[in-house]
Automatic annotation (TrEMBL):
SUPFAM superfamilies in UniProt: Periplasmic binding protein-like II
Signal peptide: 1-29
Listed InterPro entries: PBP_domain (IPR024370), Phosphate_ABC_transporter (IPR050811)
Boundaries of every PBP domain copy: 33-269
Protein origin, superkingdom: Bacteria
Organism for this UniProt entry: Moorena bouillonii PNG
Protein name per the record: Phosphate ABC transporter substrate-binding protein
Pfam families: PBP_like_2
Keywords: Signal
Length: 287
């Protein structure tokens, strides 16, 4: 009996030893998922498409980082948000004004984007507009496409508010500051709404992002102005006048995660993503 008990004790000890050796050690280091880090962006809406291209590329190669775009406003909103530390990056379409530049922010131009004047595909026969013709359309002096070589149809003018960068560029280079808007013009607050309206409204005309039109292969007629075609090449050469400068502002000492994204945005890799989406990356212009 003593031998049997001894054998049982040894067998039990061996089994327990094997069980312990096969049991995972929960005290050892495991692959613990790091907490998600967030970069917040707000400001002018015009730079959003370019920034979203960069954000998507960055998130695809970086773990545990999400880039959040808050509701868009205008350049002052992006500047104030960055100053007040409400966001990490502010989007702008201009440099800082003297009264805004208190030394707390850094401004950098990230890309250029042309402003294209385009029509619905129903407007056949019109591929170029001279300055005076554009003025006549936007003022309501000319209301039928037939007078410009197009179909016998009423011109639907889709326009932006005066404080939007698109309308400011139109006035600066073609319309002039004193031209009164066409009484029947449809005023749209957001560029996305204007783009959708041009795509869906026969005989309409409007001005919006060239890069967006290229990247999304929009089925619209991109018009030449004064004989100059709206292309990235003509933007780079300076032939095409209406160009928006898309920029960001951020605090002098950004967080590590923000700095890493900023470095990516201005890298060759980031520039290639912008170029592939129809933008002219400022980083590659400086090389």
């Amino acid at each position: 009996m003593l031998k049997l008990n001894t054998w049982f004790t040894l067998a039990l000890g061996t089994s327990l030893a094997m069980l312990v050796s096969c049991t995972p050690n929960t005290n050892q280091a495991t692959n613990v998922q790091q907490p998600q880090q967030e970069i917040k962006i707000t400001g002018a809406g015009s730079p959003y498409p370019a920034m979203k291209v960069l954000a998507a590329a960055y998130e695809a190669k970086t773990e545990n980082t999400v880039i959040t775009f808050l509701p868009k406003s205008q350049s002052p909103g992006g500047i104030a948000g960055a100053k007040d530390k409400l966001v990490d990056l502010g989007t702008v379409t201009r440099t800082l004004k003297p009264e805004e530049d208190d030394g707390s922010l850094v401004y950098r131009e990230i890309a250029k984007d042309g402003l294209v004047v385009a029509t619905h595909p129903s407007v056949v026969g019109v591929t170029n507009l001279q300055t005076e013709q554009l003025k006549a359309i936007y003022s309501g002096k000319v209301t039928n496409w037939q007078k410009l070589g197009g179909p016998d149809a009423t011109i639907i003018v889709l326009d932006r508010h005066e404080d939007e960068s698109a309308k400011k560029l139109l006035r600066k280079y073609y319309l002039g500051s004193d031209l009164k808007n066409a009484p029947e013009a449809v005023i749209l607050r957001h560029e996305a709404d204007l783009i959708a309206a041009v795509e869906s409204t026969p005989y309409s005309i409007g001005a919006f992002s060239l890069a967006y039109a290229i990247a999304n292969q929009l089925p619209v007629n991109r018009l030449s102005l004064d004989g100059v075609e709206p292309t990235p090449e003509n933007i780079q050469s300076g032939k095409y006048k209406m160009v928006r400068r898309l920029g960001i502002v951020y605090r002098q000492a950004p967080s590590d995660i923000s700095q890493t994204f900023i470095d990516f945005a201005f890298s060759k890799e980031g520039g290639n993503h912008l170029l592939g989406s129809g933008f002219i990356p400022s980083s590659q212009e400086q090389e």
